[in-house]
C-alpha cells in the first residue's frame, strides 16, 4: 500500500501545483479532533485562488470537518480543535486573538440543506450587511448579490415575500446570495446540491463557474460526476484505522488536477474509489 503521507504530497503530482497564484489556503500536518478523538489527518493541502476545489470520499472520511476548519466553523462544536498549520493568505487561521467572526465574513459558507431565514427574500440577503453595521445602500447590495447568485430575475418582483416560499433550488441560490452579500473572498459549499433535483443542481454548478472569476470555491460532494464536471482540482479523502487509537479516522490521500485524478490518480485507493471498487 502506498505511503499515505507521501500520497498527499503535491510534489508527487507536479501538474496539480502549477496554479499561477499563491495558495489561498495551505494546510500542513493538520489533525482535527473532537475531544480526544482524532477525526481526520491532512498532511499537505493547498487551495488556489479563483479555482473550484472539490473534496470527495466515502462517508465518515472527514471532508466536511476539513471544510469547516477553513473558516473555523468547528469552533462552534464543543471539544473540537485543530493542530498543525492552517494558513489563509499566508496568515495563521488559528492564531491567538484572531476573531472567528471576522474570518467568517471573509470566508462564507453554504450548507447542505438550504436554510433561508424565516424572513423576506430581501431581509435574508440584507441580514449580513446589517449585522456588520451597514444601513445605507442596502438596495444595491441586495440586487448585486441576487444577480451574482443568478436569482434576481426570478425574485425582483417579490422581494417582500418569505424566502421560505421559494423552491429548493431557489432557496439554495438565496443562501449563496446571502453569503455573497458580505463580500467574502472564499465560498465554502458543503454538499450544496444533495437535496436538489438535477435541473437545480445544474443551475448551482453553472453558478459556481460564474462565481469563480471573483471567488475561490471549495465544495464537498458525494457526487463524483459533479466533481468531475465542476471542479478544477479534486482532493480525495478516505477512512482508515488509526494505529495509535484503533479508531477509524479520515485522511487526505491525494489532491491534484481533476482531469488527472479521474484518469490517472497516483494512489491505488483513489483509483479504487473512483472506479467504484469501494466506497
Description:
Strand 7 (186-190), helix 8 and strand 8 (216-220) form a beta-alpha-beta unit. It is built from 11 helices and 10 strands. It has a 10-stranded mixed sheet, with helices on both faces. It is α/β, with parallel strands linked by helices. It has a single domain, classed as P-loop containing nucleotide triphosphate hydrolases (Rossmann fold, 3-Layer(aba) Sandwich). The chain has helices spanning 4-7, 63-69, 100-106, 121-131, 138-148, 152-155, 168-180, 198-211, 224-230, 258-263, 268-274, and strands at residues 23-34, 37-48, 52-56, 80-88, 91-92, 107-110, 186-190, 216-220, 233-241, 248-257.
Topology of helices and strands:
Elements: H1 4-7, E1 23-34, E2 37-48, E3 52-56, H2 63-69, E4 80-88, E5 91-92, H3 100-106, E6 107-110, H4 121-131, H5 138-148, H6 152-155, H7 168-180, E7 186-190, H8 198-211, E8 216-220, H9 224-230, E9 233-241, E10 248-257, H10 258-263, H11 268-274
Helix pairs in contact: 4-5, 4-7, 5-7, 7-8
Task: Describe the structure concisely.
This protein has helices spanning 4-7, 63-69, 100-106, 121-131, 138-148, 152-155, 168-180, 198-211, 224-230, 258-263, 268-274; strands at 23-34, 37-48, 52-56, 80-88, 91-92, 107-110, 186-190, 216-220, 233-241, 248-257.
Instruction: Name the structural class.
Output: alpha/beta
Low-confidence stretches: 1-19
Gyration radius over CA: 19 Å
CATH topology, what is it called? Rossmann fold
Q: How would the global form be characterised?
A: globular
Q: Helical residue percent?
A: 25-40%
Mean pLDDT: 90
- CATH fourth-tier homologous superfamily: P-loop containing nucleotide triphosphate hydrolases
How many strand segments?
Answer: 10
> What portion of residues belong to β-strands?
25-35%
Q: Describe the largest sheet.
A: 10 strands, mixed
CATH class type: Alpha Beta
User: How many structural units, i.e. domains?
Assistant: 1
CATH 2nd-level architecture: 3-Layer(aba) Sandwich
End-to-end Cα distance: 17 Å
Main β-sheet, spatial strand arrangement: 5-4-1-2-10-9-3-8-7-6
List the helices and strands in order.
HEEEHEEHEHHHHEHEHEEHH
Annotation field: number of helices? 11
Amino acid at each position: 500500500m502506498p505511503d499515505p503521507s507521501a500520497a498527499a504530497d503535491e510534489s508527487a503530482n507536479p501538474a496539480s501545483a502549477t496554479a499561477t497564484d499563491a495558495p489561498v489556503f495551505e494546510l500542513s500536518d493538520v489533525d482535527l479532533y473532537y475531544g480526544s478523538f482524532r477525526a481526520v489527518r491532512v498532511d499537505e493541502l493547498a487551495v488556489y485562488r479563483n479555482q473550484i476545489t472539490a473534496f470527495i470520499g466515502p462517508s465518515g472520511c472527514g471532508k466536511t470537518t476539513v471544510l469547516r476548519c477553513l473558516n473555523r466553523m468547528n469552533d462552534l462544536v464543543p471539544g473540537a480543535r485543530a493542530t498543525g498549520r492552517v494558513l489563509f493568505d499566508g496568515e495563521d487561521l488559528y492564531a491567538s486573538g484572531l476573531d472567528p467572526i471576522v474570518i467568517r465574513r471573509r470566508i462564507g459558507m453554504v450548507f447542505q440543506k438550504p436554510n433561508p431565514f424565516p424572513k423576506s427574500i430581501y431581509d435574508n440577503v440584507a441580514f449580513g450587511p446589517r449585522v456588520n453595521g451597514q444601513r445605507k445602500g442596502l438596495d444595491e447590495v441586495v440586487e448585486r448579490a441576487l444577480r451574482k447568485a443568478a436569482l434576481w430575475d426570478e425574485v425582483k418582483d417579490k422581494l417582500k415575500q418569505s424566502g421560505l416560499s421559494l423552491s429548493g433550488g431557489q432557496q439554495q441560490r438565496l443562501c449563496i446570495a446571502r453569503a455573497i452579500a458580505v463580500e467574502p473572498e472564499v465560498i465554502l459549499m458543503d454538499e450544496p446540491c444533495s437535496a436538489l433535483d438535477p435541473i437545480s443542481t445544474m443551475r448551482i454548478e453553472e453558478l459556481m463557474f460564474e462565481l469563480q472569476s471573483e471567488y475561490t470555491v471549495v465544495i464537498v460532494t458525494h457526487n463524483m460526476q459533479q466533481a468531475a464536471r465542476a471542479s478544477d482540482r479534486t482532493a480525495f479523502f478516505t477512512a482508515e484505522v488509526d494505529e495509535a487509537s484503533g479508531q477509524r479516522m479520515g485522511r487526505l490521500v491525494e489532491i491534484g488536477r481533476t482531469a488527472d485524478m479521474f484518469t490517472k490518480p497516483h494512489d491505488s485507493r483513489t483509483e479504487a474509489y473512483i472506479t467504484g471498487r469501494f466506497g
